[in-house]
Amino acid sequence: MKKIMLSAAVLAFAGMTTVNAETIKTPVATAIVVNLQDKTPVNAEDLPDAVKTALAGDDYAGWSVKEAFSVQSGGVNTYEISLQKDDENRVISLNEAGEAAEAATATEAAPAEQTAPAEQAPADETPSVTAPAQ
After folding, report:
1. Considering its fold, how many domains does the chain have in total?
2. 81, 90 in Cβ contact below 8 A?
3. Which residue range(s) make up the domain with 46?
4. How far apart are CA 39 and CA 34, in angstroms?
5. How many other C-beta atoms are found inside a 10 Å radius of the C-beta of residue 124?
6. For residue 75, which of 86, 90, 126, 127 sits 20 to 30 Å off, Cα-Cα?
7. CA–CA separation, 5 and 53 (whole Å)
């Protein structure tokens, strides 16, 4: 009988401690991202001739235009084109000249990258290490 009473007291104590547990509320930071792009649907027939020529080239052979958008961002007009080939889907971005839009931004970054190797020490130099005095 003592064992039953002792077990009931332990369970009651355990039940009270779990009831008094509190949840900790942590503030959550939220960020609002504003996309300043004007995205307009375009028919594949209405794409510029340079973009049509690029799509007809070897890079996109076998791919068909699923949907296309004209994207106006910062005064620059690019075309975001969804391509489909069998079960594969691919989204590309071309400028009005029919060139990949990412390639244009990569060439702008190239001059800054060219100055970085000049600041580095030559690879054939051995760094000098000074041992601490004892």
Report:
1. 1
2. no
3. 38-101
4. 14
5. 5
6. 90
7. 88
91 within a domain of the structure (yes/no): yes
Predicted TM-score (pTM) of the model is 0.49
Neighbour-count burial for 2-22, b at 16+ CB within 10 Å, e otherwise: eeeeeeeeeeeeeeeeeeeee
Q: Which two tokens stand for residue 98?
A: 């029919």
**How far is the C-alpha of 112 from the C-alpha of 102, rounded, in Å?**
17
Going by their DSSP bridges, the two strands 76-85 and 38-42 should be labelled as: unpaired
Considering the domain boundaries, does residue 45 fall inside one?
yes
Q: Is residue 26 part of a domain?
A: no
Q: What is the pLDDT of residues 13-65, one digit of tens each?
A: 776 665 555 677 778 777 776 656 688 899 989 999 999 999 998 888 899 99
